[in-house]
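note to self: dont lose this again. the chain is below, predicted strucutre after it. 199 aa total, dont forget to put it in the shared folder this time
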Amino acid sequence: MKEFWETRYSNPTYAYGTKPNAFFKECIDKLQPGRLLLPAEGEGRNAVYAALRGWTVDAFDFSEAAKEKAMALAGGACTTIQYDIVTLQDFDGQPDTYDLIGLIYVHQPPVLRQQFHRKLVSWLKPSGYLVLEAFHKEQLGNSSGGPQQADMLLNRTELLDDFKELDILQIDERYTDLNEGPFHNGSACVIRLIARKQV
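---
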């Protein structure tokens, strides 16, 4: 899997574009800047946008090629981000640290996903937000992006269970038109979540 992503991110073209995910942008534009975590951030499109909006950004991915492109994107925008090379399982987050965690197209096998999602809840500060967009299970067979294994895709029931400790402010399953670089392009079925940790 690491080799797959290194190959994809080694291409000079930004695989998912340089503009932020539309749902992430919509959410972050309404929030007061604070400290943000972006796991599996890839080439930095969301991290750089958030930094330009005044957020202190911690991002990570296991791809060295992704980090190089993210840092180049940040440099070109005259902003700074903290970007570590680490896996989802090995990232050492601290409790009550983040005002916002953004999970944008982070897909994992069920057991790993559930474990990671529980960690995210602990890393949020009280009143901190979680914003998620991912491919829904109905995306299976579509060519507009995402893994083609059903257990790697998500639905409402799974997310409500994973984040039952949070207050769910919005959860939405919908079709949308993606225009995020060459690998997220066309009509896609996605799921979106906004949740908040209780005080």
